[in-house]
Structure formats: structure tokens, C-alpha cells
Q: What sequence folds into this?
């Protein structure tokens, strides 16, 4: 290749890069919803998009990630794909927007601007009767489990429970659940089931030990995992 052609090629690449940079800088990020790449989305609640611009850029859904900074912007998708579940699940999600259900899945990204994005839902957790609908901006969401093997404690406190804070790598050891905010009695075995998501807050208890107080997880919201390919949640997963 001649020196002239090499110089021409370098100039063309440079101009193209500059144009792409300028085009990106010209877009006001405040006008665009957040989109996660490449595909996986965190646990979150679903909200309807009430903006009035043309579909598919508006009119779909927002997924609000759990345990995120309150300033975190929700993730926009045009459609929900619930093909792995029964036909009633979309109705369940629609009737339990803004905190009534928790979902997780993947985004199928568009191949060109303006083409709809779809959230392929792989997990659904439905709000259980007898607990509050959680505000994702104010509540901590965990999956609880027991220490395996159990901690052999000589004296109290004995934090044999683990709270995995969803969408983070944080795991908190704590002593016991506080279910006083729930109007119904819930078996502890259910609270640390892998099919349950708990909404609430970590807080010091009233029992004092040398060095501090016991650590509790105060439960205010319960969400049960919905089995795939069912017409409606089973009685054990009863929702409002």
C-alpha cells in the first residue's frame, strides 16, 4: 500500500471516530432510560411507563432494581416476555405493579435504533397476603439462609442466620428475625427458604451483650417464588 493511501486511510478512521464521539456527546443522557448491557438484569419491581412519546421508545415498563441507590434510574424495556410461565402471570404482574411483584431475567437488545427491547422473565416472586407492599427505594431485600454448618456458640449472641442482600455481594450475619410488623404468624422455616424474598431492615435488637446488641432483620414484606408453567400461583403462594 502506498504512503498516500495509508495516510488517507488513517485520516478517514480519525474522522469517523471523531464523528461517532460527537454523535454520542450530542445525546442528552437525561432524556434516555438506563439500559443494562449485555443482557442480564437485576432483581427488581415493575412499573408502567407513563411517558407520552411514541412506542417502542415509551409506553413499556420500567424495572426498578432492588437495593439500589435511590438516585439510580430504572431500566426501560418495551415488552415483557412471560412465555416460561402460565398465561395468568402477565395479569398478575400487571395487577401488582409498583412493588407487588419482584422479577428477574434478561433483556433482548434491539438490532437497530427504535426496535423494541424485551425483558425475558426467568423468575417471579409474588407478594404474600399479610405483609406490606415494599417500596424498593426504602426497603432492604434479602434471601435468608442458615449457616452451614451451624456456628458452635459458647455464649450469645449467636448469628446463625445469613442475609444475602440482593443485587450485591453483601452477606450479613444476624441473630434472628423480627416479624412483629407482620399481622400473621410466619414459620421461621419459611423465612429462610430459598423460594422467599424478604423485605425489611437490619436493626439492633433489645437484648444487650458485651460489645453491643443482637442484630435482627425486621421483616415487613414477603414474596414467594411463583412456579413456572402454572395457571395461577398455588395456594401456598397466595397473593392479594
A:
Amino acid at each position: 500500500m502506498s504512503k498516500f493511501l495509508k495516510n488517507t486511510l488513517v485520516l478517514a478512521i480519525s474522522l469517523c471516530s471523531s464523528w461517532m464521539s460527537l454523535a454520542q456527546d450530542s445525546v442528552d443522557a437525561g432524556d434516555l432510560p438506563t439500559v443494562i448491557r449485555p443482557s442480564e438484569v437485576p432483581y427488581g419491581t415493575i412499573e408502567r411507563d407513563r411517558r407520552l412519546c411514541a412506542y417502542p421508545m415509551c409506553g413499556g415498563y420500567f424495572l426498578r432494581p432492588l437495593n439500589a441507590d435511590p438516585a439510580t434510574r430504572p431500566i426501560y424495556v418495551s415488552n415483557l416476555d412471560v412465555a416460561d410461565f402460565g398465561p395468568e402471570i402477565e395479569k398478575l404482574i400487571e395487577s401488582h405493579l409498583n412493588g407487588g411483584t419482584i422479577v428477574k431475567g434478561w433483556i433482548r437488545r434491539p438490532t437497530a435504533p427504535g426496535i423494541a427491547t424485551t425483558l425475558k422473565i426467568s423468575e417471579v416472586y409474588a407478594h404474600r397476603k399479610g405483609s406490606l407492599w415494599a417500596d424498593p427505594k426504602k426497603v432492604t431485600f434479602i434471601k435468608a439462609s442458615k449457616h452451614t454448618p451451624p456456628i458452635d456458640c459458647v455464649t450469645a449472641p449467636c448469628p446463625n442466620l445469613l442475609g444475602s442482600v440482593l443485587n450485591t455481594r453483601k452477606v450479613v450475619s444476624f441473630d434472628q428475625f423480627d416479624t412483629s410488623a407482620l399481622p400473621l404468624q410466619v414459620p421461621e422455616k419459611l423465612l429462610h427458604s430459598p423460594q422467599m424474598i424478604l423485605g425489611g431492615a437490619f436493626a439492633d435488637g433489645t437484648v444487650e451483650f458485651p460489645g453491643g446488641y443482637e442484630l435482627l432483620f425486621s421483616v415487613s414484606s414477603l414474596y414467594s417464588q411463583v412456579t413456572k408453567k402454572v395457571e395461577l400461583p398455588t395456594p401456598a403462594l397466595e397473593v392479594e
Q: What stands out?
A: Residues 3-38, 230-240 have pLDDT under 50 and may be disordered. The two ends are 72 Å apart (CA to CA). The chain has two domains: 28-124, 140-225.
